[in-house]
Fold these 2 entries.
Entry 1:
Amino acid sequence: MAFSFPDEVLEHVFSFIQSDKDRNAVSMVCKSWYEIERWCRRKVFVGNCYAVSPRMVIRRFPEFRSIELKGKPHFADFNLVPDGWGGYVFPWIEEMAGAYPWLEEIRLKRMVVTDESLELIAKSFKNFKVLVLSSCEGFSTDGLAAIAASCKNLKELDLRDCEVDDLSAHWLSHFPETYTSLVSLNISCLGSDEVSFSALERLVGRCTNLKTLRLNRAVPLDKISNILRHAPQLVEFGTGTYTADVRPDVYSDLAGAFSSCKELKSLSGFWDVVPDYLPAIYPVCSKLTSLNLSYATIQSPDLIKLVSHCPNLQRLLVLDYIEDSGLEVLASSCKDLQELRVFPSDPFGAEPNVSLTEQGLVAVSLGCPKLQSVLYFCRRMSNEALVTIARNRPNFTRFRLCIIEPKTADYLTLEPLDVGFGAIVQYCKDLKRLSLSGLLTDRVFEYIGTYAKKLEMLSVAFAGDSDLGLHHVLSGCESLRKLEIRDCPFGDKALLANAAKLETMRSLWMSSCAVSFAACKLLGQKMPRLNVEVIDERGPPDSRPENCPVDKLYIYRSIAGPRCDMPPFVWTMDEDSGLRL
Amino acid sequence: MQGGVGGSESGSMSTVSREDNMVVSSEDSSCPDESELELGLGLSLGGFKMHQVSRGGHYARILTAKDFPSVISASSSPSSSSSSSSSSSSSSSSLSRANVTAGTKRTADSVAAANSSSQVVGWPPIRAYRMNSMVNQAKNQATEGFNSTMENHKSETSTVEKGTTGISSYQNSGNAKLRKSLFVKVNVDGIPIGRKVDMNAHESYEKLAKTLEDMFLKTTPNVNPAGSRDLELGMMNKLTRSSKLLDGSSDFVLTYEDKEGDWMLVGDVPWKMFLSSVKRLRIMRTSEATGLAPRLHERNCQRQRSKHI
């Protein structure tokens, strides 16, 4: 009974429940639990910034300290979402600045963050501690200077993969000399001349709690030794450029500096690597759990040597220079490997430049019993290999395969790869994320709809034959939250027939498919809780026949209604879409 | 039953089915009737009409870049029979669909332009951030002359060749199907949020100027998203009044920053040379663009001035 426990007790119990899903479940038990829960929720997660308005969030959760927001759809990473589409954070900062002086953490992904927003954050939140900007853009070093100057309690400043306008190298000097609370700094995305080395060294020197430091490419190799000596307590470190003329004194400095870091678990950076300097990190390799060599243009023999020194590796990002032979060594050396990402070194080349094939992936799935997450770029694949992989490694939770040439068939049988991916979804019962590639018919979607019951995110490109494919996915995948599709022959029928399903998902992206403008309008009219956005840079969709397919379509559920910050090339279909545009 | 007629089929076979498809799809591209939609909304899928569709074969099959092996150009080649059947209205919508599915960013005017049909934006799915880093690495390797990264490799000549191939494929897409995009930022004075434009999707200054004019010369400015600055609405209105950016007849002038960091007027060097040196674009007020003469011997003057811009 709701009366059996006083509120404070329930609140205390709820404080142990951190995950959003669980919190949401708690809030649905009964009215009083809803009330208690909303007052004590400290971390809010909004997976789509347009699904809800800032005011609604603030009204429901009056005392949160931390917010995470996501903006643009995932395909924005590949330039499929035109600039200016949206995802502006300023309205959120503005509302929160008014309501919450005690906000501590802001985490943003794929949002447009202006200097004005950063300045407002710096001014409004006195106890601000954590700023994580992931794949964001729209700000410059001026905004960073404002944060540095005003946020006296800042612990974390992480700018992973952002696009920053470089205006001044001196923003780092805006951290006052009295400021010592930095724990994590990631500036790996900054272009050249955006960091002053002396300011950096002084900052690192006085922040004795610094655990994570990811430098940018402009930091030369000979500066790293000094920085590391100032911060031997580092757990995660990203180098700058890893190249220099080979000199014994520089080398021994570097090796000594690395040896002094007894806590290092994660390394990254390694732009422009000179192999002669790699052994400098051998002293720390045995403790490494995470290694990002995805910018390191070193060849297989050097990669093999390096990887053989890291028996405790759990996460490896690497270029396809590692080749099948390197992956075989990885499979035998790194039995704790959980995540592997292999990126292409020459994605636009007509011919393969390295010997990396499906065999490498087979080897790793055979040899690494804990492997659960894979992102693999290659040029050929076979159903046989995929079935082997699925059978060997049923514990995959994330499987993303990109065969570089669209619609590439099984290279052995010339058949579509339906059966291979079918095996993946059949054997890997906990699969949450899947990206397809290669030659695929509607059959693969039938497999996915039948077996992939825990699948939450599906990415599809250049696949399928008909609406039946889309229908299989929408009607069969019970846990589906995000679906993104490009260049597939999916049209109106499956979409309209599964309209209700779309309200159970976060979002659907379809570009270069066959969904007509008429269908978009109909969907918008019938489903008031969906925002149906037509994105078309050719001009207004009503200037073409109604049965003409739209260029891009982004559908997401929302309780905030259509947004008001759309650029000229985005139209929302709503109840009146028949009447106005 | 074998799946779709993919790109692996031989030319004549797929040509026939493509034409069938275009006819089929134009017949069937009407609005689905209400009863089907009610079916979906009621979440009852028994006896669903979808199954009939699949037996029809390639209903609503989209034409992708692979279906048009030759360039869709003004001078249509005989081999691409699909593009030549542009007489019927349904086919022309299919044609524009094909252009759409090619996926490049285009303005309305350039749909029929002689862009390569097999240009696919955003594939393979590599984040722009990573692509830029890799391009910079390729460039660095070129300028540093394959330094000690290559030294340890046994067969040095073959490595050098590999490296060259890799670099040239970044600069001039080796694979006709997957063209590298070259996105550069465009900023307009007074508007804080810039846009990005794919330089490789244009072949000339005129096309680029047209795209930019279309991007920024909208007659219906929207509510400013990033803040409430009347200046910006005024900006938009101003832009609608000005005309061409290239011929000096507008209030605005198109400039670019080159690899050396100098700001120059756009339009003086050959297009290809421009492509290889442009880092970003800026549309600035004509009044502020004094001294930006694009003569090479005036570079020093520009370096001084660019500090004040």
Note: Residues 186-218+241-288 of chain B form a domain with the Ubiquitin-like (UB roll) fold (CATH 3.10.20.90).
Entry 2:
Amino acid sequence: MEGGLVLLGGGANGGGSGGSSGFSTNESAMSEASSYPAETELELGLGLSIGGPTGKINKASGRILTAKDFPVPRRASMNGGTPPSVTVSGTKRAADQSVSHDSGSPTATSQVVGWPPIRSYRMNSLVNNNQAKAPRAEEEHKGINEEEEEDKAIKDGSKLKKPNENLGHIGFIKVNMDGIRIGRKVNLNAHSSYHSLASALDNMFLRSAGAEKQQLTMPSKLLDGSSEFVLTYEDKEGDWMLVGDVPWMMFLTSVRRLRIMKTSEANGLAPRFHERNRTQRSKLI
Amino acid sequence: MLKKMAFSFPDEVLEHVFSFIQSDKDRNAVSMVCKSWYEIERWCRRKVFVGNCYAVSPRMVIRRFPEFRSIELKGKPHFADFNLVPDGWGGYVFPWIAEMAGAYPWLEEIRLKRMVVTDESLELIAKSFKNFKVLVLSSCEGFSTDGLAAIAASCKNLKELDLRDCEVDDLSAHWLSHFPETYTSLVSLNISCLGSDEASFSALERLVRRCTNLKTLRLNRAVPLDKIANILRHAPQLVEFGTGTYTADVRPDVYSDLAGVFSSCKELKSLSGFWDVIPDYLPAIYPVCSKLTSLNLSYATIQSPDLIKLVSHCPNLQRLLVLDYIEDSGLEVLASSCKDLQELRVFPSDPFGAEPNVSLTEQGLVAVSLGCPKLQSVLYFCRRMSNEALVTIARSRPNFTRFRLCIIEPKTADYLTLEPLDVGFGAIVQYCKDLRRLSLSGLLTDRVFEYIGTYAKKLEMLSVAFAGDSDLGLHHVLSGCESLRKLEIRDCPFGDKALLANAAKLETMRSLWMSSCAVSFAACKLLGQKMPRLNVEVIDERGPPDSRPENCPVDKLYIYRSIAGPRFDMPPFVWTMDEDSGLRLS
């Protein structure tokens, strides 16, 4: 680099960790935050400025902080020490890395929320692109171009992603619960089963603080009809169905949004619910 | 007396002079000259811009500017685009509409970004403002096509309805037919984000036919290719057009129809849409390519050879949005054909794939930087980068004003040397003296922040993720970047020290976002107590922060300056730290 730089801190050079790295949930980065005279630091920050690094008066900050003010930065780990994260909703890391993809190629980026920074609108469009190709392949009448595209795909060594491979990346969908004004969004991508989805929704809706929710019991069985609420979804055709009836992957391709409905209202839904009860009842007799 | 006569013009003269000053910054500067200029200016300000809807209250704005005609409001922080801000955080526009409805029957323009807009708000707009002309909703949510129907039905003078990347509840496509048959003033319509599986084609066609001043039309995905010709035929005067789906069975009659209408559009400068593109239909747009200045192919899943062919037909291109299918080879062609290029955005087609699916590397960006002398704004997603490439880019293109690089895998080092990319980004800030916006990625230590603090004096917005080693990094930025207005940070080991030491700086900025960092609850409380003009919001879905030890880091922190005080529309997972925060939470 041309032009000497005045290095303010002590050896603050990070090491190279060489290529892609996973995420560590180590605790050491945390301890920096704990014990130091917070009050005095703040007073200094608000004090009159003396001069900035370039010699000009820097109105925004206080005195020049030197190496003495900062402990030698700890290189928490080779991976740079990301602080631990305890997450509940919108799972930070995929609940299950072993998602039941039809593909088989594992994803390199663990499914961190909001990374890479692509708007959900665009993300969903990417998903739609890949999903759209799948049903098209099933159509009876194939346009000439589809055959050409498939040919190209095979020739180029599948440069175009094969339709099945990206079905998992469906992204965020809306969830509303009866009686709660504000809806939420859940990342279906981060779940590999109904069970994991249901517990995420439990955490999201039924455990947070708030007067509205205090009267609810603690149903953790959204799926088997034993609680006051039942989990339903709207499919691509606009019909409301009970969650849990179809295989998980099929559910992913057809779900548009979710609704946590009062069990009493769910009676009009998916006839299978009644049939199941009827058969169960008949079995008991 | 003498002083007054010597130095003042009559108010009317000043007002006339001020009317030539449109930019907010300049207007704000004018109002600070003296009391009388403040008074005159506030009465003649016609456009108000509020960068953070919680920084000021609607009543305050109305009190100060009694006669504005146009308002622009922004709500949620930028990271809301990537789902980092939980639903329900806030940004409701209704209170603003309600206040303005009472005070301002002559309001003409409303522009909103990242706000929650309900059907109720839209209905209130339709009812209250008789001369309403412009509604631009950018990344907004909370409304349905019912609200749009209300606008269509009542706003007789509507000129612009622009829905950009909004989440709209598609209840019915028939909202379009609510535009009365007598309505003809539409100039710009953007419904590209609507999803309706069935679109009201006949209503759309009739609307286009009778609005002869229509200049911008961006259709949504539901409009099939064979309908486009019919629509375009009635609007040869269009300047900006967004297609719907660009796919169909290849039929010569559809193709020639399309080619025909495109050749009759002599004013067309901007094209977008192109969902599900079939390459065979692309040549239909060749007649307009030579005049195109803006092309958005970021939803077009076509491969490099087709993209190259298309791009080489567009020598006057100034703005290109494209998927990484264009590859390095395509970008090289772009660099040699489009010498007027100013803005380039390359999006990833498969961001979650383990292996790269296309051959797009740092070389593409280098080629464009070397070849396009006017390039000033870049958003580039790729999988590898080197310091060498960044230095080359910086040296050859010092006129960058916006440089956003996203290396898809966090903490990726220089692939040639395995070192951090500090030096590369350092070169960017050192050479590009007018850089206003920067997004970092890759493996970065505190050093890069030192470079930024030292050189990036015009930087207004900085986005940081998975970078840095210690508080020193944050301190460099807060103490060095004089023009900084917005800082957003995620997953960095920045804690209390730098934040508290630079507390005063925060009042000179619009906002600071920090998520998954190491700022403790204690520090948040302290900031809230000591800085009454900052709203310090702790966003934590794990439950109340005081149910954990004080030195526990908070999940998300959003700090913004405000003269409106703490807000009261917060959901259960947001807490504002203020003077009494110590008392209130216990």
Note: The mean pLDDT of chain B is 93.
